[in-house]
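User: My advisor, Dr. K., asked me to get a structural model of this assembly before our group meeting. I'm new to this, so sorry if the format is off. These are the inputs:
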Amino acid sequence: MMRSAPVFSTAQAAEEAFYDAMQRGDLPEMMSLWADDDEAVCVHPNGARLVGVQAIRASFEEIFAQGGVDVRIAGAHIQQGAMIAVHNVIEKILVSGRMGTEVVECIATNVYVNSPGGWHIVLHHASPAGERSDPELPVDTSTLH
Amino acid sequence: MMRSAPVFSTAQAAEEAFYDAMQRGDLPEMMSLWADDDEAVCVHPNGARLVGVQAIRASFEEIFAQGGVDVRIAGAHIQQGAMIAVHNVIEKILVSGRMGTEVVECIATNVYVNSPGGWHIVLHHASPAGERSDPELPVDTSTLH
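Assistant: The format is fine. Below is the predicted structure of the whole assembly, which you can bring to the meeting.
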């Protein structure tokens, strides 16, 4: 039996489903949340810009091959329109490594669009949260702008 | 004589003015382009998240103290609504350093809102464009998501 995709009546509900799918590493659920839009853009932390759902699917497939991402979000700042909503959030990601478990913070801008099929994500831009004077960065991009 | 701020009838025009102000390091012009919004968000490459126009002004003041930023944009992907527009662009920034001049690429998500005073920028999220497998990054954030 095919599972029908849920219809989200708010961008907030779509965002909760987005991070839930990421947490669980659920590829079909994740991809059901994206707008079927050639202009859809996804930037993973330190990643290249991916455009279109096909490239975005491939990236999540690769990420989820290692399981879900232990992520919680906080500190939302929202611009809400009738057809477009923009959420900027802090992602707190639990990462297990050689040095034990640590929380890595990323900043994410998520854009949702409203359609007859409900709110879908159309842009996800995540980057590591940093200080502008981080001396460990290989290229001193802190003075770029 | 006080200069009156221009009124932009499109998000595209506001974006051109934004990068022109950055190019020239023009702080009054730059700040006239921002929406006067407590929810305004600015993330400079590798920077912390700045919220509200006061923090944003301070950051541009610091950046422009060293002059303008030699930046060109390319590859825009746009979501256009009646009240909100989202532009994702590649910033090509000319940086002079010990190793000569190089072009550093950043990815930027810019959000514009429409108001009686025209289109203003309300969110700028820029991060260095990377490949997910860049071995030089100090923290392996490539597997975060």
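One thing worth pointing out at the meeting: The longest strand of chain A covers residues 100-115.

User: Perfect, thanks a lot.
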